[in-house]
Amino acid sequence: MKENRLEIITNTFLKTVSAFANYDGGVIIFGADDNGNFSGIENPESVCLDIENRINDSISPQPEYTLDIGEKNTIELTVFSGDKTPYMYKSKAYKRNDTATVEVDRAELTRLILAGSNRHYEELPAENQKLTFRQLEKRLIAETGIDRCDINILKTLNLYSDKDGYNIAAALLADSNNY
Question: What is the pLDDT of residues 150-162, one digit of tens each?
Fold first, then answer.
């Protein structure tokens, strides 16, 4: 009699689902070992439902994925790279590191949060809001023929917004900066 494989599928795969959704996507095959030997899954339809429920109950936000029953009763879980990062499992985000799944560090978590909100580091507000752009202005006048570099030019260049003021990109181009 074939062993019931339902109880051997632990929740550790959920960390990998988080990692795949946070980065480049990937495939997890249930019912095959690391050497490619197929043992199969007994009752794959009910195991698919169990996997689906575990993902839906454990990963936030909900990642995009598909479940297919493959050859020899294996289950192929394809997780797609998401744009609502970070995808969290038990309030932690994960990434793949060679063949292991590891928790991301604080800096990487910040990067995932910014990417998920469609923002990048250089778009964040600058700490110093007292910036001057004499060198940038000289270059813009020479290259584009404008009369002067005013706040409207800086807005057009996405260096300034009425809401946040100067951003980090502006601070990098300023006459004096901490970079």
Answer: 999 999 999 999 9
Task: State the DSSP H helix or E strand holding residue 54, giving kind and residue range, or none if neither.
Answer: helix 44-58
Which structure tokens are listed for 164?
């946040």
The enclosing H or E element of 17 equals helix 13-22
Report the C-alpha gap between 116 and 114 in whole angstroms.
Answer: 5
3 neighbors 42 (Cβ within 8 angstroms): yes
List, for residues 11-36, the tens digit of each pLDDT value.
999 999 999 999 999 999 999 888 88
**Helix or strand run (H / E) with residue 7:** none
Phi-psi region of 129 (alpha: psi -120 to 50; beta: other; left: phi over 0): alpha
